[in-house]
Amino acid sequence: MAEEVEIEYFDLHTVHDNFDRALLQEDDVDIRAYLEAYNELYKFFQLMGSVFGFVSSDLKQKIEVLHALLSNDQDNNYASIKRMIEYEKENQLLNKNDFVNGARTLLRLHRGLDFIAEFLRQLSELDDSDNTSACCQDAYNKTLAKHHSWIIRKAAKVAMYTMPNRELLLKKVCGNHVQKNVDVLPKVLEVTADVISRTQTVYEIHQLHTLP
Description:
Helix content is about 65%, strand content about 0%. The protein has helices at about 10-20, 30-50, 55-70, 80-90, 100-125, 135-140, 150-160, 165-175, 180-205. The model is unreliable at about 1-5 (pLDDT under 50). The chain has about 210 residues and is mainly alpha-helical.
């Protein structure tokens, strides 16, 4: 008889606590804590299955790249977003052909986080019986869609049509802990907005927010 695999459900408390830690340094964002929060958010996409395939595989790759940079970082150059960008600019790593730089990689996660936050915000305003497809499409159009090709946008919108109502979606990703996650969602949205704002400001100061 096959051994039953225990599902690791999505936990917004983990997202909140790690993003909160990421903001301990004034006007900066701790990358390690940021990635810990993102690992939990990525679990949300995994639990949703192929619906978010248009974004989840790309996010996983970017998370792995930044984890690798952190693992090889002997001088804390990748301790925070500010330090990372300053280090890569000073050492002319942003346009180095044989180096996958952290600034461009984290910018992709930043754009993805903008989408996730907007989707969760709209999700929080729905009733249990409301379909999540329309709010997901709206969140996508306001955020990630502007950075995607026509083909990806088309595939994403087709995938979103299959999304369930709010009650079924939350049960799928949270298991028996739906209410616990719903209760902490306002605090998660607040701290995530701070992370997004700080990150955006750092990129704009260094004129890197439009990196291709």
